[in-house]
Design a protein that fits this description.
Blueprint lengths: L11 H14 L3 H27 L4 H9 L18
Helix pairs in contact: 1-2
């Protein structure tokens, strides 16, 4: 496995919390951070793959056709859009 060095700047509070958790797990701070980053990368890539499979061949055109079937009427009380911010 090749390794790359990356200077990481963390807020002190985050570094202290990570160091505390690393000590609790019995690993170095570097190993704990590498594991945390790997977990995050894995979860994002897994979610992305899941959503692509779930979407299948869906297109924006299909959504537009579905929304075209929604009746045009005034919003019910409490469902109004807020006034634009200035």
């Amino acid at each position: 496995m090749s390794k790359a060095t990356y200077p990481l700047k963390l807020p002190n509070s985050v570094k202290e919390a990570a160091a505390r958790l690393a000590r609790r797990d019995g690993v170095s701070l570097n190993q704990w951070i590498a594991s945390a980053v790997a977990q995050k990368v894995g979860s994002i890539e897994t979610a992305e793959a899941f959503l692509k499979r779930r979407a299948g061949k869906a297109t924006g055109e299909g959504l537009a056709a579905l929304l075209d079937r929604v009746p045009s009427r005034a919003a019910e009380p409490g469902d109004e859009l807020p006034p634009p911010r200035r």
